[in-house]
Every structure is written in C-alpha cells, then in structure tokens.
Amino acid sequence: MGAHHKSRFWRICRVSFRRFRISVWLLVLAVLGAVVYVNQVGLPDFMKRPLLAELKARGLDLQFSRLRLSWAQGIVAENVHFGPADLELSPHLNVAQVEVRLNWDALAHLQLQVDSLMLRQGRVSWAFAEPDRTLKELSATNIQTDLRFLPNDQWALDNFKAQFAGASIQLSGVVTNASVVRDWKIFQGEEPASRSAQLWQDRLRRLAETLERIHFSSPPKLRVDVRGDALDLHTFNVVLSLSAPGAETPWGTVSDGRFAARLLSADTNGLSRAELELHAVEAQTRWAAITNLSLEVHLSSVDAQTNLVKGEIKLSATQAQTQWAEGSNALFTATWTHSLTNPIPIAGQGQISCDFAQTSWGSARNIELRGDLKTATDASLVSSYDESWAWWTNLQPYQLSWDCLLADVKTPKLVADRMACAGTWQPPRLVITNLEATLFQGQLSAQADVDVATRASHLSLVSNLDPHRLTPFLPESAQGLLAELAWPKAPKLTAELSLVLPAWTNRAPDWRAEVLPTVRAQGAIALEQGGSYRQVQVDSVQARFLYSNLCLHLPDLTLTRPEGCLQAEHKADDLTRDFYWHLSSTIDPALLRSFLDESAREGFDLFTFSQPPAVELEIRGRGQAPERLWFRGQVRATNFTFRGEAITRVQTQVEYTNQHLYFIETRIDTGSRYVKADALTVDLGAQLIYVTNGFSTVDPMLVARAIGPHIVRDIQDYQFSSPPTARVYGTIPLHGEESADLHFDLTGGPFHWWKFNLPQVAGQVHWSGLHLTLTNIQADFYQGLALGWAAFDFERNHGTEFQFAFSTTNVLLPGLMADLSPSTNHLEGRLYGNVAVSKANSDSWQTVFGYGDVHLRDGLLWDIPLFGVFSPALNGIVPGLGNSRASAATASFIITNGVIRSTDLEIRSTGMRLQYRGTVNLESQLNARVDAELLRDMWLVGPLVSTVFWPVAKLFEYRVTGNLADPKTEPVFILPKIMLLPLHPFRTLKGLLPEDPNSNPNFSPLPP
Fold this sequence. Notes:
Layout: H1 2-40, H2 45-57, E1 62-63, E2 66-70, E3 74-82, E4 91-102, H3 104-108, E5 114-129, E6 135-150, E7 154-164, E8 167-176, H4 185-188, H5 195-212, E9 215-216, E10 221-229, E11 232-249, E12 252-264, E13 273-285, E14 288-302, E15 305-322, E16 325-339, E17 342-359, E18 363-375, H6 379-383, E19 398-410, E20 415-426, E21 429-439, E22 442-451, E23 456-463, H7 476-483, E24 485-486, E25 492-500, H8 511-515, E26 520-527, E27 531-533, E28 536-538, E29 540-548, E30 551-561, E31 564-573, E32 578-585, H9 598-605, E33 607-609, E34 614-622, E35 625-642, E36 645-657, E37 660-670, E38 673-683, E39 688-696, H10 700-707, H11 709-715, E40 718-720, E41 725-733, E42 741-748, E43 751-753, E44 756-758, E45 760-768, E46 771-781, E47 784-794, E48 800-812, H12 813-820, E49 828-841, E50 844-860, H13 871-877, E51 886-896, E52 899-909, E53 912-921, E54 925-934, H14 942-948, H15 950-953, E55 958-963, E56 967-971, H16 975-979, H17 985-992
Helix pairs in contact: 10-11
C-alpha cells in the first residue's frame, strides 16, 4: 500500500512534470511565435488600439503601415504619417520609423503609458499648386529626433536634426498642453478655396522659387529652440540661430554670415518680444556691397494694446558701397510702433550717422540725421483724401520732425564747411525751422514752410555768402553780370519770400505764368565795405527791395564814394515792362565812362570836375520801347573845366520825352560872365538843338574853344577885348551844318579884325545851313560910324562865297591910317565912303566883284605915298604948296576880278587938284595915271590960272606903278625928268634906270 501509493505519487509527479514541461515549451513556443508575429507581422489590433488611443490622448494621430515589436528598439511604427492624409495642400510629416517607448513601471501595473517617441528618417513636406495645377512641395528631410511626453501634457523635443534647402537644422523645445497642437489650423488642412488659402499657396511658391536660387559654399547650420503653451501662441519662446560661411542668394552673396532670432513669450506684464540679429563679414548685393554688416531688430508688444508692436533696429556697416553712393562707419538706429496688420509705422524715431559718404553729386563727413514720426492728431486730415495733394497723400496720416547735420560737404559746384537743417511735417504744413550753412567763407541761415493744401510757400533767409561762388548755379546772363562785380567783403542779404507753387498734379508747370505772379519778396542787401563794377569803385551800397504783383520796388538804394553819394528809388513792372527811377547824385559822372562805348567816352573826357555835380533825375520808361522814355530833373555843377576852359557854375533843369531833350533855365557862369537860356531843346530824332532866348556875356573865344578847334580857326580873326553881349535863338544841328538856323544879336567892344580896331560893334548874325549873314552891323569906326552887312556861303571844297556892303561916315583919317599903315605920320581929315562886294570867293582874290565910293573932307593926304608923289616938286616951286590941306577928295570905283578901277579919283586943295585914273588889285599892285592942275581951285581965278599954266601942268602928268606901300612914279613926258633933275638929281637918275623887280614888297590881300 505504501509502496504502491508512493509509486503512484512519483508517477503522477512525472506525468505532471511532463505535462508542465510540455506546457512551458508550448508557452515558450507560443511566446516565441507571438514575438515573431508582432515583429514580422505587427501588433494585433487589441494591442494597437490602446496604444493608438494613448498616443491620440497625447495629441498625436498616427497613421502607419504597420506597428511591430522590434527586438532592439521595442515597439516601432513604420511609414508613419502625421496629419490628414486626404488633403494634398496641407503640411505632412512622414517618418520611416517611430520608436514608441513605454513606461515600464506603469506597464508593470498594467497601465499603458508612452514615455517618448524616437523619429528616424522623417520628412516634412508642404505641397503647393503651380499656376498650371501641377503640384510641387517644400520639404525637410532626414529628420531625426526624440519626442518625450512629460507629465501634464507636455512635450519635449530633443536632438531634432534635419536637412532643409541644403541647411543642417537642429531643433529642441518644450510644449505645454501639446495635445492641442493637433487642433491648430495649419494641421487641419483646407482646400485652397478661400482667398487666404490662395495667398498661402502664392507665398509657398515664391519661397520655393527663392530657395532654389540659394546656394551655400558649405551647409549652413540652423539651431532652433521652441518652448511654449499650445493653448496660447503668445506664450511661445523661440530661439533661432543660423550660420553660413558663404552663400549665394538672389539678392547677392554673403560671407561668414550669422543670423539669430528670438521670439519671447509674454512676461508678467503681458508683453511679448522678438529679437533678430544679422551679422556678415561681407555682403554683396545688386544694390550694395557691405563690409562688417550688423543688424539688430527688437520687436515687442505694447502694454494694453495687443494689436500694436514696438520695434527697435540697429544697423551698422564699416563700409557700404552702391552704384549711387558709398560710405564708411554708417550707423542707423530707430524705434517705432506699428500695427500687427500693417507694417508701416504709426509712430517712431530714427537716427542715421556716417563718418563719410560720397555720391555722384558730392561727398560729406560726420553726417547725422534724426527724425521723429507719429500719426497725425487731426482726425479730419487722416480720414479725408484730396486728389490735389498728389503724392503728398502718402504722408497725410503722419506727423514728422527731423534735423540733420553735415560737415565738409563737397560737390562739383559747392563746398560747405558745415550744413544743418531741422524741420517738421504737420499736415498740411511742411516747415523747415532752421537751415544753416557755413560755405564760401560765409554764413547762410534760412527758414521755410509750405502749406500743401493751398501750396502757399514762405522763405526767410539771412546770408553773407559770396555770390561769385554761386556762379555755377546761375544762368549765363547772371554769370556775365557777376563777372564784372567785385567786393572785398561779400554782401549781406536778408530776404522774405512767399509764393504759391504750381499744382502738385501738374508735371510740367509754366513757372512764369503760374508762379511768378504769386511771388512776394522783401528784404535788404548791403555792401558794407563797398565793391566795384567794371572797375568803378564804391565805398558802400545799401538797398531795400520789395517785389509783389510782378513789380520790383527799391525804395532807398544808397551808393557812396569819397566824393559823394547816390540815392535812388526804382520801380519796375515785369508785366508791362514799365520802369521808374528817382536819382539824387553827387558822384563824379565820369564813372559812367566804363558803361559807354568809345564815342560816348570821348564826351566825358571833355570834362574835368574838381567837385562832382549835383544831379537829381526822375526817369520813366518801358523796356524795349525807347520812344516811351521820359525823365526830368536838374543839374548843378561848380568849378569844373570843359575842353580846358574853366566853368564856375552850371545850373539847369532837364527833361526828356518823345526823343526831345529839354534844358530849361540853363545858366553857365565863368567868373563874373555867364551864358543863359530859357530853353535848349535837343530833338534827337531830327538831330537838332533849338535855342530859346539865349543870352551871353562871355568871351566868344571861350565858347569857340569849348566847341572845338575848327570854330577857333573860323573866328580867331574876330577878337573882342572885352566880352560882348549876345542874344541867341534858333536851331543848331548835332551833325553837319546844313540844318543850322541860328540868330545872334551881338553888342560889344573893343573889337579887332585884321588891322581894324573898333571900340564898339553891334549887329545881328544869322547862321542858316552853309550860309552866314551879318545884318544891321553898326560900329564906332575911328570916331565915326560904320554900317553894313555881309553874307557868306560856305560851299564845301570850293572856298567861301561871300558878299558885303559897308558905309562909313565921319571917320577920322589919322586913326584909320595909323592901323592900316603905321609908316604914315601926318594925316588929317574926315572920311566918308561906301564899299560893296557883290561876289567873291575866298579861294582867289581874282573872284572879287563890287563897287563903291569914298569922300574926304579937310584932309592932309600927302604922307600917303600914293598921293605924295608931287609934294617934293611943288614944294620946290612954292614952299608948302606940296603939303597944302585938301579941301575935299572924292572917288568912285568898281571891282572886277579882284581889280579896283577908278576913273574919277580927285583931290582938291588950294595949291592944286590931283586926278587919278587907273587900277589897283587886291595884291596892292598899282597901274594909274596922275594929273596935277596947279592953282585950279584958287578962289575966283583958279580956272583961268589953270588954263594959263596948262603947259606947266603937263610937267605933273605921271604914270604910277608898283606897290601901294612903295609906288613908282614916272613922268609921262621926258621933259619933266630933265627939269626935275636939279631938284632931285639922285632920285631922278634912279627913276631913269630900269626897275629891280625884287625891290617891291608884295602886300597880302584883304581878308573877307
């Protein structure tokens, strides 16, 4: 029993062991089969469902080809797809393998909990449609990362690596409430039916095209760290950094570039921030080449205004060069605020500084520019839109203020030591509050403003710049004017200018027609140290100016020189071209020589002023219309010379109109003598001078010397010892003599002409063209009286044709003959006579024709050689008979071809009567016959005695020849020569001999 019982026990044990062993092996075999199954085929559905539910609870909706158990990796999902698979145009994440790591402690407690996912060979793609509906995509490949699931629905992304557009990406981050990520719109996917979806498609397409054109010299490195709460995007913190040793992009090339971005979530004050940094050793773009580029951007939200962003930027470069400019050590900083939906700032301020900048227009150093921007406060201006503002509407919603500073500014036409400017824009008004410049060794200060709505503009400036330095900016006409101006110190200018600019929409305005009528200007200009124009020096110049309604007004132009000053008022109308001058001057008029032509300068050379004349003129006229010129004024001058003749004083009123120049109440003083006229009228059109009521007490030779040497030659034979009194009226031609018609009334003396000396002469002179007429001539003629007239015809190139007639009464013969022949020493008698020349020419004495008669009373004539030929013989017969007093002498004569012929010259005396018949020419050559009748005029018996002594009278019949001064007598018969030999032996013998033709002097003919 016992043994049987024992044996049965061991048999049961053996059977149980065998069965257990078989069960274990079956179990092992089943486990091995299950493991092989889940490794090769995949987890069964009962195992996948709780796992997928766990992942979905974590926020992941995995889609995979199979989920299997790997011997080394554990649970592995293959060909995993995250996101909706049925939408082509949404972002997709595809991973070759996803290793699902479980929490074994939780599993030990029969709880399924996924601790992490390990993604291998992942790929993110975002498809987009081309215009032709073909699909393209952007993708990040070779994704390797660990995704840890932390308590409280947190995800931690570790060791994320990927390749995107040739760049190596490293990503890390932590996301709270990560399960909400699956609800983000970006992972929901929508067909591009809406406008926003289409916009995203366009952006992706442009991004893809851009990435295709970017090439790196070596793969860049991109590091990204993301942390935040999926429930609120504002809580995310993103840190991004990118380094690229070299890159070629559509915008240029970059060398040693580094980029960093930080997106910081809201702090305790609810403010979020973003920071961007960009650095590059060199950057070459189609716009610029930059060395040591540095860019820093800071963006942050605004307290209590979630729709606004506050930004800060700092941009610097050691060197920057563009096709328009280049600079060094440039720095740009700015702060601004803008809306999330509009990147254009609504407020901000910025500053630019640069050590040196150069453009095609010029260069500058130490450049500083600061500006402030804010939105306009006037709601009406912000909301309204006026098309007339044109491009100004872009600035309408804003208010601006700025200031800038530049040093050492150089351009081809301008060099400035310093320039500064400040201004504001408060719509609709643009204001330049302060423009200052130090250039051209001077200073410029200006202020300006423009009302954009009305286009009204205003400018005020103060300047002492040298205008010569502004020549390159001026038209050629102004350049020519400035070239003739010089000054030791530049003029000082103050000015106020206002105008209305042309419409902003008018691209080709007519500035003269539209703008010039609106110009208003006023100011002053001063040359404190004087200057020169065409080498004319002045000590100072001052003037105020006004310009309005196209009219210029200079109310008080003042110009000073050592000898005096010029004060003037000027008005000019640009529309009508009318002008007005009022001048008051005590400056030497010789200064005008520089502004006149050579012929006009000669007129100034005739004057020499010891004291400048005082001139006051009022001038009106119109440009390009000389017939509209008018002026009026007065001239006063003292102590000057004209053609070397001293003038004590000149005073006249002057007026010009219609090409007529009037000198009114003119008076010229030379010591105690003077010349005056009620009016002198110069007709410039007819080239005539009209004299009205002229009066003179000056020496005619002074007037002749003042007129010219040809007048001196014409009148030098007519001399007044004491200046005569003359009254003048008539017409004087400015050129030639044909139009002359001048009348003189002369009274004065003593007067000298040829050999005549007269104590008093009076007469009238009429100068008419080439004709000169002397009428009503009256003269005190050697204690007698002479009356007469004369006429002269000054034919050109043919001598002077003349004629005259004179009569004399009661002329004292001794005085007359003393002037005519100083050798006569004892003459007496009173002379009466008439002489008339009906035709003559000054070229030859042989052209003289005329007639006359002469009478002598109670005279002694024998000392005249012509009449004293018988005195010695008669005195030899009866002492004193040859020198007896002539009771009368008469003669009549005619003049033909310059030869005076008389047939009735008769001299009566108590002793004898002489009768002459013959000729004498104007060269004083005689050819006459003389008869002497002895005692012919004895009382009562004279005729009888004369008849008785007729044979004796034949002894006194002579032929007279030779010269008037030394006549030669020869008896007609030979017997008188023999009878007279005892009386005058030597003279008689001389007379019998032939005459020496060189012994007779020739007298000059009488002048006309």
